[in-house]
Amino acid sequence: MAAVSPTDIWAVGNGWHNVDEPLIEHWNGSGWDPIEEPSVPNFQYTLSAVDAVSARDVWAVGSGMGAPDPDFHYVPVIAHYDGTTWSFVPAPAPPATSVYALTDIDMISATDGWAVGWQGRLSVGATQPLVMRWRNGRWVTVTLPDVGGDFTMLHHVYARAGDDVWAVGYENDSALVLHFDGTRWSRIAVPHGGAAGESNDLRAVTAVSAGEVWAVGFTCLPGGGGGECQPLILHLAGGSWQVVPTAGDRGTYLLDVVARESNDVWVVGYDQPVGVQDTNYVEHWDGQRFTTVPVDARSLAVRGGLASALAAVTRIPDTAELWAVGWQDVDVPQVIRHG
C-alpha cells in the first residue's frame, strides 16, 4: 500500500480467476477506481508491493511466468504508472539457470529507488537474496555480500535516504538484515528471537531515524504450523539491536510496521489461535511497551466466521490516519483505517 495524499492511495496484490492475476486498486478520496492492469498475451503475474513518488510516478513489483519463456520460469515484474496508464518497465533478466521474484519496492525519488526479492538456482533448488536499483533510467541488479544459506530471501526494503537503506528477510533459520550505507551492502548481526532451535523470519522494516530502526516478523518451531509461531520484533536503538517483548503469543504473525515517531510505532498482521480462524491483529508501541489495539470486525464476518489478516500498513500524508490492507477468507480484499 502507498499513499500520495488522502485522495490518492494505491493498493496492489493478486487474485484468482482460473489463473493468477494482478490486482491494482486506487482510492480517489470517495471511492475505489477500477484500474486496468498492464498485460501481455499468455503471461501470468501477480503484484506484491507498490510505492509512490508522486501522483504521476507510481511503481509496483511482483513476479510472473509464461510467454515469451516456454519453460515458464519465474521472472521479475516491474510496472510503472505515469499519471494516465500502467505499463511494464524492463527488469534485469535472470540467467538461464535461475528465476527471479520481487517482493517489495521503496523509491527515494524519481531517479533513485530499490526493489528486493529472491533469485533461485534451478539446478539445486536453492534461493538467494536479490536487490535491484533504479538509477539513470533503468533497473540494475546490485551485488550483495555472501550471506550463506541455501534458502535465503528478502521480503521488505525501506529506503530512509540514499545512504541509509534497510532490507530484511531470512537466511535458513535466521533473521536476515542487510544495510546499504551509500557505497555497499553489508549484513548486520541481530539477536535470535524465540527459543533455541526456532526459525526467525523478518517480514518488514522501517526507520525512525538513522539510529533507530524497527523490524518485525515471527519465530517458529520446526514445522511452523498454525499456533507454532509467535511474533518477533527487533529494535535498533543506542547502537545495538534488541528483541522487544510483544503483546502477541503463539499463533500471532507480524507482517508490516510503520513508525510515526519513536513513541508511535504500529505493527499489523494476523492472529491464528489453534483451531480458530485467522483474525486481524494490530499492536502499538507508546515508547515503553507494545499493546494490542482492537480492530473493528463488525463488517468482516465471512461465511459464518471471521477469517482475515492484515498484510500492509501505511501513513496517509497530511492526516493522522493509518490505512491497512489485507484479505478476508482468502479471496476477499479488505481495507481498514485508524485515526
Strand order within the widest beta sheet: 1-2-3-4
The CA-CA distance between the termini, in Å, is: 17 Å
Count helical runs: 0
Helix content: under 10%
Question: The biggest beta sheet, please?
Answer: 4 strands, antiparallel
State which percent range the strand residues make up.
Answer: over 45%
List SSEs in N-to-C order. EEEEEEEEEEEEEEEEEEEEEEEEEEEEE
Structural class per helix/strand content? Answer: mainly beta
- Tally of strands: 29
Let me know the average pLDDT: 90
pLDDT < 50 runs, ≥5 residues: 299-304
- Give the CA-based shape: globular
Give the C-alpha Rg: 19 Å
Task: Describe, in plain words, how this protein is organized in 3D.
0% of the residues lie in helices and 62% in strands. With 339 residues, the protein is an all-beta fold. The strands form eight sheets. Strands 1-2-3-4 form a four-stranded antiparallel β-sheet, with no helix packed on it. The chain has a four-stranded antiparallel β-sheet with strand order 5-6-7-8, with no helix packed on it. The chain has strands at 2-5, 8-17, 19-27, 32-34, 43-54, 57-66, 75-81, 86-88, 98-109, 112-121, 126-135, 138-141, 152-161, 164-171, 174-180, 185-187, 199-209, 212-220, 229-237, 240-243, 252-261, 264-271, 279-285, 290-292, 301-302, 305-306, 308-315, 322-328, 332-338. A hairpin with a 4-residue loop joins strand 23 and strand 24.
